[in-house]
Design brief:
83 residues
């Protein structure tokens, strides 16, 4: 589940928030929220995408930098909700 899920999430982030960026620059532990790549609007867009695509529901307290700051954290959150 981990790698295909992570790849799909990475593709979405690259396409929506980092168009034209070298995919190698989006590492698993690159801070997305604290560096400003994901602002509040982008975070909401990401949450809505994850909920719709993976049939999960994220709680309000999960839509924060604790849970969504890196690709690893996002993947972990989504996979834990899919169980």
């Amino acid at each position: 589940m981990g790698e295909p899920l992570k790849a799909a999430i990475k593709d979405f982030i690259l396409k929506e928030f980092l168009p034209g960026e070298d995919p190698a620059n989006l590492t698993d532990d690159l801070p997305l929220v604290t560096t400003g790549i994901l602002d509040s609007i982008a975070t909401l867009k990401l949450v809505l995408h994850l909920e719709e695509k993976y049939g999960i529901t994220l709680e309000a307290h999960e839509a924060d930098k604790e849970h969504l700051d890196t690709l690893d954290r996002i993947t972990f959150l989504v996979s834990s909700k899919m169980k």
